UniProtKB/TrEMBL annotation:
InterPro entries: Kinase-like_dom_sf (IPR011009), Prot_kinase_dom (IPR000719), Ser-Thr/Tyr_kinase_cat_dom (IPR001245), Ser/Thr_kinase_AS (IPR008271), Ser/Thr_Kinases-Pseudokinases (IPR051681). This is Protein tkl group. Residues 36-316 form the Protein kinase domain. One of its GO terms (molecular function) is ATP binding. PROSITE patterns: PROTEIN_KINASE_DOM, PROTEIN_KINASE_ST. It comes from the Eukaryota.
Length: 711
């Protein structure tokens, strides 16, 4: 199913234009329903369904209420105004929790719509839930190291939730998603509550949750509602993971007898009465589970690193100690890679929070910010500072577990890599600011005209592409910490002209491996620059293009976006050297157009630090060499000779003609939109995206400068 939503575009744009800086920050998660595509259903709960969707160039999971014909006789958010309001209240509760709990082990909140249909956009997990994974006969969490690593991730996510004084109250395998690289994400905060409650609300909250996972104190009158209930639920979840069974399967009439049995100390046992569950796992894990489901809630450990029970006694600390011990006897590179990926994800989240805190500080100092907004901003700031502090603590813990500790070779190499990526992003943002200033917007029409000519019978190949230098090492860990590239060898990736996203191409769907002559790079540097611009513009608005970068595979989208910027900036460096060498070898004629000065042929995205590269604005202003079909025919010949794919059989794009006569190679996801709208929907005609990119790049630059000034 595919659906769209219609709102008053003029009213929406007008309202947005009137918002102050504080209002924009406080409403940053509110999305325009027109930008969301709703696709097929993924799953369902009591009052809601979860569907796959598409928003801002990425796949998302969309949680929305059941429609009347899907309600199975139950009241739902569409059946009455009161039900609609109740669902929106639960939605706001979930948004409030997720907007502050920013952590690699908590599902990412992309945004929310309240009208015309209430829905929340979350990170998409292709592998589904932990419950889905455990149903498989030979699932991936059966070895001690695998399930300890999984449970440690869940515990870290819950530590972050509790740091914000939020109680989940429905932790179970169905509410843990399995993200890329098997990283667990805590999800479904619809039943969550805050520590700041009255006794009356405690009474109603005590009834929430799923029966087998409810702690004994929740069955008391009045119930005790606290973080200990989540620790108990974690114990039941851990038991299910290590034993591979569901709890209480042999208990008759469990729905009525379980509350009393749990209060008397009954805990899960295996279906086979002759087996003991303790024999299914290690001694430390047995002690942890038994401690977490202790009958006295005050005796259960915290998720965090100690608290009142002493340093190292928390669930996270104990699991990480188990993980470290088990890793010593396993594949060392795999263990180090897992630590490296954790560190990169954690540092990325922390850096994102740093930028957000600078923006909040600027809004707090704005004269237009009202007293009520100041209060809300202060609450947001406190929440983000809590998340950032926990992330820094987690990052230090990861570094401490690496060989040699925080000063070891791996930790030092990762630190250098992260700093290098930040520098590359800063340079790319400066490029975007230069390229998309208002005074040069009109000059970009030359690029559009140049591209448009290819549709007039010359388009035998997708026009937007990126060339990525091929890395020497096949080891993912080495690709992260030691960047080395093969000479003159590239990975060619085509971009969809509608979304700007990379498409699957090449025999292995990770790009065409080509040896590209320097002469071709020199002569066609202008058309090469178009794809690089798209990647940087996408990065400026926080959108990953999806380039096949093995070292970034499975990392959060912000990290992937940084890696993509680093990749294109690396190519620009190689590209610049190739042009200089090529011009020297090929002579002046190879580097200039007969009717234009030498400087006009430099691509506008080459680093301005290059001694021969003119400024971006000047390059755009004087670029007169029109792209022709010759370059693309040569590219097709390279694909034929080197990849045996002259007819692009291994490229998931097809040549289509739109209603307005435009001809493009487009992906399957963009085909319908292109056929209907033609040139209007091409990404280089999207002035809104360009201005958004310029605005966000300027905002990021301001944030970075503020952070440097504060230091």
């Amino acid at each position: 199913m595919v659906s769209s939503f219609t709102l008053s575009e003029g009213a929406s744009a007008s309202a947005k234009a009137r918002m102050t800086r504080a209002q924009e920050l406080l409403r940053k998660f509110e999305l325009d329903a027109r930008e969301i595509r709703v696709l097929e259903k993924l799953g369902e709960g009591g009052q809601f369904v979860v569907v796959r969707g598409w928003w801002d160039g990425i796949e998302v999971a969309i949680k929305q209420p059941r429609r009347p014909n899907e309600s199975r006789g139950e009241e739902n958010a569409f059946s009455s105004p009161s039900a609609h309001d109740s669902y929106k209240q639960a939605l706001r509760r979930e948004v409030r929790a997720l907007s502050r709990v920013l952590h690699p082990n908590v599902v990412k909140l992309h945004g929310v719509c309240f009208e015309p249909v209430p829905m929340i956009l979350l990170g998409y997990a292709p592998s589904g839930t932990l419950q889905d994974a455990l149903k498989k006969k030979n699932h991936k969490f059966q070895t001690p190291l695998a399930y300890v690593r999984l449970l440690a991730g869940i515990a870290r996510g819950m530590e972050a939730v509790h740091a914000h004084k939020i109680f989940h109250l429905d932790l179970k395998p169905e509410n843990v998603l399995i993200g890329p690289l098997d990283v667990p994400w805590i999800t479904d905060f619809g039943l969550s509550t805050s520590a700041n409650m009255t006794s009356m609300s405690h009474s109603s909250v005590g009834g929430r949750g799923t029966l087998p996972f409810k702690a004994p104190e929740l069955f008391a009158h009045p119930p005790h509602v606290g973080p200990e209930a989540d620790v108990y639920a974690f114990a039941i979840l851990a038991w299910i993971v290590v034993c591979g069974e569901q709890p209480y399967v042999n208990m008759p009439a469990a729905a009525t007898s379980l509350p009393q049995a749990v209060a008397k100390g009954v805990r899960p046992t295996l279906a086979d009465p002759d087996e003991e569950w303790q024999d299914k796992t290690t001694g430390p894990m047995v002690k942890l589970i038994e401690g977490c489901w202790h009958a006295e809630y005050a005796q259960r450990p915290n998720f965090g690193w100690g608290g009142s029970k002493g340093a190292g006694s928390g669930v996270v600390a104990r699991l990480e100690k188990m993980e470290h011990s088990l890793s010593n006897g396993s594949d060392q590179e795999a263990s180090q890679l897992a630590l490296a990926m954790r560190l990169i994800s954690t540092e990325s989240e922390a850096e994102t929070l740093s930028v957000a805190l600078v923006q909040i500080g600027a809004a707090q100092g704005d004269a237009t910010t009202t007293a009520a907004e100041q209060t809300q901003l202060a609450e947001e700031k406190a929440g983000l500072e809590t998340s950032q502090g926990l992330l820094r603590q987690n990052a230090f813990a990861v570094l401490s577990q690496m060989p040699g500790g925080t000063s070891g070779e791996l930790a030092s190499a990762l630190s250098v890599m992260l700093q290098h990526q930040s520098d590359m992003v800063r340079q790319a943002m400066q490029d975007v600011i230069s390229e998309f200033k208002d005074e040069v917007f009109s000059e970009l029409k030359g690029v559009k005209r140049s591209l448009s000519r290819l549709a007039e019978g010359e388009l035998d190949c997708p026009r937007l592409f990126v060339l990525l230098p091929m890395e020497k090492s096949s080891s993912k860990l080495m690709q992260l910490v030691k960047r080395e590239f093969l000479k003159d060898k590239y990975r060619l990736v085509f971009l969809d002209p509608i979304s700007g996203r990379a498409v699957r191409c090449g025999p292995d769907s990770d790009g065409y491996k080509l040896e590209v002559p320097k002469k071709w790079l020199v002569e066609n540097r202008e058309i090469i620059s178009y794809g690089l611009q798209i990647v940087k513009m996408s990065a400026a608005v926080g959108r990953a293009v999806g380039l096949p970068l093995p070292s970034a595979s499975g990392l959060p989208s912000e990290v992937v976006s940084k890696a993509e910027v680093e990749a294109v900036k690396t190519f620009e460096g190689v590209f610049s050297d190739s042009v200089l060498i090529g011009e020297s070898a090929l002579g002046e004629d190879a580097s200039r157009d007969d009717a234009s000065p030498r400087s006009s042929t430099w691509p506008c995205c080459l680093p301005s630090a290059s001694p021969k590269a003119p400024s971006t604005a000047k390059a755009v202003k004087h670029a007169v060499k029109a792209a022709t079909g010759r370059a693309y025919k040569q590219l097709r010949k390279m694909l034929k000779d080197q990849c045996k794919d002259e007819y692009l059989v291994h490229c998931e794009m097809t040549k289509e003609k739109a209603r307005d006569g435009s001809i493009e190679f487009v992906s399957a996801d963009s085909k319908e939109r292109f056929l209907q709208n033609g040139q209007q929907c091409l990404i280089w005609n999207d002035e809104t995206l360009k201005r958004k990119a310029a605005a966000k790049a300027a905002m990021l630059k301001e944030s970075l400068e503020s952070r440097v000034h504060d230091c």
